[in-house]
Amino acid sequence: MSVLDSHIPEGPLAQKWTNHKNNINLVNPANKRNIDIIVIGTGLAGGSAAATLAELGYNVKTFCYQDSPRRAHSIAAQGGINASKNYQGDGDSDYRLFYDTVKGGDYRSREANVYRLAEVSGNIIDQCVAQGVPFAREYGGYLDNRSFGGVLVSRTFYAKGQTGQQLLLGAYAAMNRQINRGKIKAFNRHEMMDLVLVDGKARGIIARNLVTGEIERHSAHAVVLASGGYGNVFYLSTNAMGSNVMAAWRAHRRGAFFANPCYTQIHPTCIPVSGDHQSKLTLMSESLRNDGRIWVPKKKEDAEKVRKGELKPTEIKEEDRDYYLERRYPAFGNLVPRDVASRAAKERCDAGFGVNKTGQAVFLDFGSAFERYGKEKAYSSGHKNPSQDEILRLGKEVVEAKYGNLFQMYEKITAQNPYETPMMIYPAVHYTMGGLWVDYNLQTTIPGCYAAGEANFSDHGANRLGASALMQGLADGYFVLPYTIGDYLADDIRTGKIPTDSPEFDAAEKDVKDRIDKLMNAGGKHSVDTYHKKLGHIMWNKCGMARNAEGLKEAIKEIAELREDFWKNVHIPGEANNKNSELEKAGRVADFLELGELFAKDALHRNESCGGHFREEYQTEEGEALRDDENFKYVAAWEFTGNPGDAKLHKEELTFKNIELKTRSYK
């Protein structure tokens, strides 16, 4: 085991990033046009990085498996993006955003990176406004803000319930400008199959054209991985069905350490599972917790009647409702962090108070918001004695203006009108805080290989606060990577083009083709989805919201056995040298079957509870996460050794010089 060096700059926290930028190497504009960079993934992190790097003068190649960068999963981030501009005048600052993020991550993130994230957050909003992103505005024309979980201020900028989509369109427009200039060559419907190393440096990729099946070689002086997270290892998640870990995992197999894989976020406000037929879950934005109140019946008999359809939620009196988050966490109420809200919902449902047919749901109710907003709207309109009907009508109009598309989406999926009856929600896998280990420059343990956005182990520690994913993705792509990658590329101004006819490219392409042949010739009878679903059941039941040593040991054994069976008995129809979506899925599931084992191994070794990693053996008397700072105050970075079960642990010790290390409290 080694101790990792994150290359954090010296000096005071608030000056580290400025001093670092002033001292790192630069690349002359005339030399940038002689340097090639590959960017994998064109969501917010990849799209913003590609556009910015091309604007600086580098030659950029982008790769995405979708038919357009606009299809990236970033569009599903509905609720908003954080920034410490303090437009509300409620006491926000860079330091408070930094503090909330470190605390929200249960003190398992790197101070220097998180402060930099807070420091550049305001620039992101300015950049996106300049691009024309239609952020919501107040009456006077100023940008509006709302609150998200884990904070006591309003710092979340939003565009109704379409924030991710609007931000992605801004990055996509910036990309298109560079495509039109010839500075970006876009390879859509291409999937990275392997990373190519030459003399120990990342010098290109092997990609598969998903339309023709052709295997292609692409070289560059550096490779940026911005391919998102690995939540689909659980099969059912809020991720797009195509979201996968392939790019990051193939880099891991080539030597990039994988950090904290067990840190996975369970989002509290998702539409509950309705049956075994489902292939994905749908997220209801956390922004709804601004105005929606979460509750279950106080009496078990009422909950049973609701489950049987004998009692409607609107028929349960106010005094018979348990607003359990407001009861348990009075300071933050319904806006506690996601891991806290998710475990609280699970506790109530496990205790028998769940409200859907399976007993795995709680209510998200907007009745109080309709009344509050309705009275305010009536009063400001001159109606001093409005009727109850008028209050509700006006209140629903206000809520529709703020969340209308989310309400519409809920009704389309569930066939229930959330204006007339409370929504039903339950936690589901959403975001992954683990990912490729990177240093302060966002470089992995492979020289020349960088990771941005959700693909890296990020700035979020053991739990991500809501509206911080978009912030981190755009911070990395617009304002961090374009500076730091130059420090590495300054040594390549005389290198010249990287040839693709080298022995290293030959060997990597052979590995890819051999792997594809092995999948196609397995000759089994079980579909890829069969294995993915089985893996998902193991992961959810034994590595999900609550974990214990016995279950994790069982998961490691079961996943290894499932992986062995997969390679012997999977059936993939069609041909390799053609369009073949089943082959695409098979490659991704093969990686998930390796990642899943490492995930369980990481969770088993971490004998503590922190953030999204909740070990049942380590909790307080009140059921809260119980950290062990003496023994586990570090990033766990795993080195691939040929088998996930034999992965080698490396540690990056975390130091806290600017924040007091203490037990999280949202009460």
Automatic annotation (TrEMBL):
Listed GO MF terms: electron transfer activity; flavin adenine dinucleotide binding; succinate dehydrogenase (quinone) activity
Recorded catalytic activity of this chain's protein: a quinone + succinate = fumarate + a quinol
Swiss-Prot/TrEMBL cofactor(s): FAD
Record bears the keyword Transport: yes
Major place of residence: membrane
Keyword Transmembrane found: no
Location of the Fumarate reductase/succinate dehydrogenase flavoprotein-like C-terminal domain: 532-666
One BP term from GO: anaerobic respiration
Subcellular compartments: Cell membrane
GO cellular component, one term: plasma membrane
UniProt-annotated catalytic positions: 338
Keywords of this entry: Cell membrane, Electron transport, FAD, Flavoprotein, Membrane, Oxidoreductase, Transport
Enzyme's top EC category: oxidoreductase
InterPro entries cross-referenced by the UniProt entry: FAD-dep_OxRdtase_2_FAD-bd, FAD/NAD-bd_sf, Fum_R/Succ_DH_flav-like_C_sf, Fum_Rdtase/Succ_DH_flav-like_C, SdhA/FrdA/AprA, Succ_DH/Fum_Rdt_flav_su, Succ_DH/fumarate_Rdtase_cat_sf
Record-stated family: Belongs to the FAD-dependent oxidoreductase 2 family. FRD/SDH subfamily.
Name this polypeptide is given: succinate dehydrogenase
Source species: Christiangramia fulva
Native organism taxonomy: Bacteria, Pseudomonadati, Bacteroidota, Flavobacteriia, Flavobacteriales
